[in-house]
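sorry for the late reply, my laptop died twice this morning and i had to redo everyting from scratch. anyway the thing you sent over, i finally got around to it. pasting the sequence first so we're on the same page, its 318 residues, then the predicted structure underneath. double check i copied it right bc i was rushing
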Amino acid sequence: MLTRQLTSGRAGAATVTAACALLFGVLAAPSAAASGGGGGGGGNCDPGTGICTIGASTPPSSGGGGGGGGSTDPGGGHCSYQGTTVPCSEPGYGFWDGVACYDQLDNPQPPATATIWYGHNPADGGAIYWEYCPYTGGAAGADYYLAYLPTPPPGQPARESPGQIAAQMLKRLKVYSVKIDSAPSANGTGLVGLPVWLWTTSRMALPNLVASVGGITVTMKASIGYISWNIGGGDFSCDNVTTAYQSKDGLEKPVCGSASGFATAGEQTVTATAHWGVTWFSNIGINQPTPILMPETSQITLTIDQAQALNVTPQETP
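ok and here's the structure:
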């Protein structure tokens, strides 16, 4: 849902309908003209630019003029359009981009599946902005519309994107290889052909990592999706990796492991690869819900003996 206040003089009720439809992947023409002056109209998107118009009415203008360029200096407050001084920011509309528009980050961001993203991954750094172009009507022929921009437009306050914050968090994130428990144990001895049980007592997830920079908060989650095991005959995985062997289990088929164990005697290697998945979410709706994979491997060595059967012929009694 939109949190921006769309009112008369900026966009009327019809525009709210078009904007909400746009954000959730459906473009709908408004049922009536937008109120508060200026023309309403239907919504349309340009696949090349990623700009979507929403038929907005004309907000109060800071000045006039046709197409052309300008300058921006949000720090010093000296901004211009075709030689005419213009405000470097407009309350509710954002900051002058030095060309012809004021830009403001849409907060929260639309869902990643919304048409406005045009297939871009929000986690890659781009974002959806409201653009107010009182002098030229904007690139899409409307003076107030939503647009996908791959990089922040000029004139915006210095701020890190959620993707940049997450990248720094990933550098500090420490995932671990799991501790391998087994029966027979690493300090014991097993026999050829007998079952081998495998499990772990390691935690399957880390506490959430949270970082806040300039009003943007990113929450990062890391958990083990699955563990792949290898005892020399190819990788396999188990639904339950935390069930430990107990003496009452005897020679039962392992919950996780191999029912036939090892075929040869000697020192045998057991490998466990923990497949970590890392996701993150921000407070402005730019998220990374698809796990970033971070595998970690651990190994132990088991001693396996060959059981010997003695065949002794009994001696006859004289």
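Residues 174 and 206 are 9 Å apart (CA to CA).
thats about all i looked at so far, will dig more tmrw
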